[in-house]
């Protein structure tokens, strides 16, 4: 998988913290951690907003 420079820099900064715990999250939104439920809701909303027909959820992001 290829990551852009921003993604690589973000991951390197996260790893440089050094004192990471199992319950630390890589992706955090303005209101806290991004859960499967939150991402599934967002994905459905985005697809509806652009007029896509079908069933979309958080797993769709993993496959794209």
TrEMBL record:
Protein name: Tyr recombinase domain-containing protein
Organism: Stenomitos frigidus AS-A4
């Amino acid at each position: 998988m290829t990551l852009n420079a921003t993604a690589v820099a973000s991951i390197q900064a996260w790893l440089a913290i050094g004192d990471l715990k199992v319950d630390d999250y890589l992706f955090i939104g303005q209101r806290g951690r991004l859960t499967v439920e939150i991402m599934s809701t967002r994905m459905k909303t985005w697809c509806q907003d652009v007029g896509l027909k079908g069933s979309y959820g958080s797993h769709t992001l993993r496959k794209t």
